[in-house]
Amino acid sequence: MTDSTAKLEFRGQTHEFKVRAGTVGPDVIDIASLYATTGAFTYDPGFTSTASCESEITFIDGDAGILLHRGYPIDQLAEHGDFLEVCYLLLYGELPTKAQKDDFDHRVTRHTMVHEQMSRFFTGFRRDAHPMAVMCGVVGALSAFYHDSTDISDPHQRMVASIRLIAKMPTIAAMAYKYHIGQPFVYPKNELNFAANFLHMCFAVPCEEYKVNPVLARAMERIFILHADHEQNASTSTVRLAGSSGANPFACIAAGIACLWGPAHGGANEAALNMLSEIGHVDRIPEFVARAKDKNDPFRLMGFGHRVYKNYDPRAKIMQKTTHEVLGELGIKDDPMLDVAMELERIALTDEYFIEKKLYPNIDFYSGITLKALGFPTTMFTVLFALARTVGWIAQWKEMIEDPRQKIGRPRQLYTGAAERDYLPIAKR
Ligand code: CMC
C-alpha cells in the first residue's frame, strides 16, 4: 500500500499527480488539481474509469466475482446474517454485539408505522399506476411528514432519518402493493422479524389468519441482504449527487428510487422475468440468443452482463440456490420459466459471444423467478430492490455528509455546440 505518482505529458509540460492506493482494488490517480494546473478536463462518459468518492463501505472485485461489505463476503452475510444485522454493519462499520443488535432492532421496529395521513396520500394515485411511480412520490413525501429529521447538519437527525427510512420502506412498499391490488393496508407487526413482517403486510388480509412461512421469510431476508448495497452504482451515485447539494435524505432516496427504476439497473429483474416468459419454451432459446448477438437488434438478454462483474455475479449464485429452496418449499416441481432460465444460462455460458464479452448471469436473472414464486407481481420486483437498497443508499449518503472533503458534485463537459453568436430576430431566421 505505497502511494506513488503518475506523470502526464501535456502541451510540452510534465505534471505529476499523486497515486493513491486503496486497501484492495485498483490504484487511483488523484487528478483533483488537473484543471487548476493544466486547464484541461478529463472525459469519461459513464464513469468507466472514474472514482467519484472515497468509501469504506463496499468493495467489489468484478474480475474475481467478489463482493464485500465492510470486508465481509456477501455469501457469509447471506448465509449467517439477518438483514438488520447487515443494515447495522453498513451504517456503523462493524457487526453488532448482541446488545447493540437488540437495541438497533428495537429502534428500527419503533419506526415501522407511517404517519396516518400518508395512507391518504396513496389514494391520489391511479390504482393501475406502476408501484415504482408511487414509491418515487410517497418516499419523496416523507420529508413533508418528518420535519424533525431533515436537518442534515445534526448527526442525531441524520441517524433518525436513516432508521426511519429503513423501517418505513417495507411499510410503504407493502402499501403500494395493497393499493395496486385493491386490498386494505395491513399495519406492521413488530413481533415479526423484518422480512416476515414485510410478507405479512403484503399477503395478510383482515378476514383471515395469515401465518408467515419461515422458509419463505428466510428467502425474503436473503434477497434483501443480497440487494443491500453495491458501491457506487447509478442509483447510489444519484443519491450521493442529490445529497451533495444539501438536499434532505428523504428527497435523496426518492432520487435513488427514480434512478433504480431504469431497465439497465434495478428494472432488470422485471425485464428478465418478462423475457423468460416471452421465450416461454427451451426450444425458442436459440432464436433469442441469436437476437442478443445481432448488432442490428437492440434486444439484450436481460439478467446478463454487468458493468463491474466480468465473472459470475456472486449474488447470482446465492440467488439461484434461494430459487431452488423456495420452489422446493412451495412444491413447484415443474416451473417452465426455471427450465428456460437454466437452459439459457447453460447455453450463454458456453457460447463464444458471451464468453468473449464476459457476460455472466447477474443477480436479476434468478431473483424474478423467486419473487414470482413468493407471490409478487413483476411490477413489485424493482420495489423490493429499492426497499433493500435503501440501507446502502443511506449509509453512502451518511458517509458523504460526514466526509470533511465533501463538496457539491459538479461534473464538467466537453462542449461541442455552437460558439457564441448573435441573436437574430424571428423575421430574419
Ligand atoms: N445481452 C447481449 N449483449 C450484451 C449484454 C446482454 N445482456 N450486455 C452487454 N452486451 C454486449 C454489448 O452489446 C456490448 O457489445 P459490443 O462491445 O459488441 O458493443 C458489450 O456486451 C459490452 O456492453 P456494454 O453495454 O458496453 O456494457 P455496460 O457495462 O455499459 O453495460 C449492463 C452493463 C448491465 C447495462 C448491460 O450488460 C446490460 O444491458 N445488461 C442487461 C440488463 C441487466 O441485466 N441489468 C442488470 C444489472 S445487475 C443489477 C444492478 O446492479 O442494477
Automatic annotation (TrEMBL):
Keyword set, alphabetical order: Acyltransferase, Transferase, Tricarboxylic acid cycle
Catalytically driven reaction(s): oxaloacetate + acetyl-CoA + H2O = citrate + CoA + H(+)
CC annotations in GO: cytoplasm
Active site residues per record: 306, 364
An annotated GO BP: tricarboxylic acid cycle
CDD domains: EcCS_like (cd06114)
Single GO MF annotation: citrate synthase activity
Keyword Magnesium listed: no
Recorded metabolic or biological pathway in which this protein acts: Carbohydrate metabolism; tricarboxylic acid cycle; isocitrate from oxaloacetate: step 1/2
Gene3D superfamilies: 2.20.28.60, Citrate Synthase, domain 1, Cytochrome P450-Terp, domain 2
Transferase found in the keyword field: yes
Family: Belongs to the citrate synthase family.
Name of this chain's protein: Citrate synthase
